[in-house]
Amino acid sequence: xxxxxxxxxxxxxxxxxxxxxxxxxxxxxxxxxxxxxxxxxxxxxxxxxxxxxxxxxxxxxxxxxxxxxxxxxxxxxxxxxxxxxxxxxxxxxxxxxxxxxxxxxxxxxxxxxxxxxxxxxxxxxxxxxxxxxxxxxxxxxxxxxxxxxxxxxxxxxxxxxxxxxxxxxxxxxxxxxxxxxxxxxxxxxxxxxxxxxxxxxxxxxxxxxxxxxxxxxxxxxxxxxxxxxxxxxxxxxxxxxxxxxxxxxxxxxxxxxxxxxxxxxxxxxxxxxxxxxxxxxxxxxxxxxxxxxxxxxxxxxxxxxx
Length: 306
Known about the structure:
Structural class: alpha/beta
Strand content: 15-25%
Distance between the termini: 16 Å
Radius of gyration: 20 Å
GO cellular component, one term: Golgi apparatus
Oligomer: single chain
Low-confidence stretches: 1-11, 90-95
Mean pLDDT: 82
Protein name: Trichome birefringence-like C-terminal domain-containing protein
Number of strands: 13
InterPro entries: TBL (IPR029962), TBL_C (IPR026057)
Order of helices and strands: EHEEEEEHEEEHEHEHEEH
Helix content: 25-40%
Family: Belongs to the PC-esterase family. TBL subfamily.
GO molecular function, one term: O-acetyltransferase activity
């Protein structure tokens, strides 16, 4: 029997809980997720979520669709590991995470996810900031800090270590039964300069597949994610845990046309901002991430039924 096209993106999320770690693009992903779930009510009507957050902090949110006992949660963890913010304003008001403990779990999220059915983790652009790196509670190096007698590491060093620790945290959860999804790195699209050197993103059309390629740090971050994912997957499979790759990188690479650029604030807001070629407009490619994830959840649902 031919599948009804109107049901291709529908998955039964009743009695489920979905958790996602968040850095800024992931927050937009969660915004898109709430919108998509609103529109995919299996009974033909829209149900809006109830805020059931445990704390008032907007970076740590839970929403519940009470009719279906479906919970969607978001936890802010831009580095995935324990980090201490030395200066909440920092240079150019972007924030400065001065201390990054690469071998320590971020218990803000690792203590909250054991009962979730699906876990989605991601991290990326916050690793371009200035950081002092710790292992075994000792300084081992830094990124962009140029401190005397401290080794300056490439940013990929901390990035790899952070994902290794995050996956270790997931694999150490004794009662975890859920599936872990890694949402891969989303490249930025600065042209004619870096973010703080006048770079901008003014294209109005997507790239064709032969007009761009993943290069430099973007490629390094992506490959690092894949390598650490495969290691974690192999370790997790030994105890029956499932890992899935939500690979959005190539699709996102082709969309330089949907960043907020200089329009990332209210029209009359009196602020000085750099052009934003990291975050995304909604509607936009973030909705495609949601489509990918919904289709993967549907595949899991069909597999469990069969």
